[in-house]
Amino acid sequence: MSPPAKVPVTLFTGFLGSGKTTLLNRILAAPQYADSAVIINEFGAISIDHLLVATPRENMVVLESGCVCCTVQGELVDTLIDLMRQRGKNGVPAFRRVLVETTGLADPIPILEVLAAHPDIPVYYALHSVVTLVDGVNALGQLEEFRESRRQVAVADRLLISKSDLTDAQALAALETKLAELNADAPRLTIDPRTADTRLLFGAAYLDIAQGRGDVGEWLRDGASARTRGGFVAHTGNVQTFSIRHEGPVTRAGLVLWLDLIAGLKGRDLLRVKGVFNVEGEPVAVHAVQRIVHEPAPLPTWPDEERASRIVFITRGIPREAIEQTLDVLGYVAPAANRATLDPDAYARFVAAVGKFH
């Protein structure tokens, strides 16, 4: 029996003044999004933005006690669990998706960690996408000054540039270059949040691996940069984006060991990792956020004719070469389970594998 379909969560982020609330109003005015639950985060003691959001009150929850990426992380968890418990009951509609709007000062990484690794949340919810609004007038300065702004762009699945009518072509071109340096593969759209075509905002169909739904290639953003061995590398704000193809063998033991080591030793600077691995001939999807690794999930079928393992990295200060030198670990062969004594060869392989990480 297939597991129940999870409720997709779309995270709307973007720096202060980029137009998130205006866009959210536009989305909720569209009939296809009327059955959305909305979670709005406010930084400070007085809530204002939620008064501007046109959605029935029972569909909306406002987190007021602090930034959703830090002090109200537990409140976000409680809200998601409560929403699921009341879904279709007690006046709460049977929502089909959740939209989360963060404060402009939020670092999205901790939110992604909640969705990936909390004991209860991944049972019912899964990340659909990260949509980041970019202020066409002020973003260049914000990206230079604020780490949060750079992270919001770096982890985005879709970048929406607002206020393009208030700036000139030269400034917009400079912004496009900066965004490409931070996140080469996320599609970039210039929009007016008041009139945007909501069908264009979310990108590819929601990827639910357990249900065999969605486009894995789109999930990986497998564009031109991912078709080269090295992929794209950027050094803006100490954030690098690159794609790696691995032709060598991948064992189940090797994948588990590699994930444990890379998350444990380098996880602080792994902003996101997404990949499809050829594990002993079978396609397996992996998604990690810093030290949090989703349980590897077998795919029902290969997404295309490609059989090499493909991994997309968004890192802080970790060069591609540091990752490439660890990939041999993926072929690690564990000692036989029925051995009563230590296998010297297996131990030597283990020591050699761990030595790849430094």
Low-confidence stretches: 43-58, 64-72, 222-236
Record the strand order, biggest sheet.
3-2-4-1-5-6-7
Order of helices and strands: EHEEHEHHEHHEHEHEHEEEEEHH
Helix-residue proportion: 25-40%
Radius of gyration: 21 Å
Helix count? 11
Mean pLDDT: 75
Coarse structural class? alpha/beta
The quaternary organization reads as: single chain
Sheet-strand content, in percent, reads 15-25%
* Overall morphology: globular
What's the N-to-C terminus distance?
43 Å
Give an overview in words.
Mean pLDDT is 75; it is low at 43-58, 64-72 and 222-236. The chain is globular, with a radius of gyration of 21 Å. It is built from eleven helices and 13 strands. 28% of the residues lie in helices and 22% in strands. By secondary structure, it is an alpha/beta fold. The N and C termini lie far apart (43 Å).
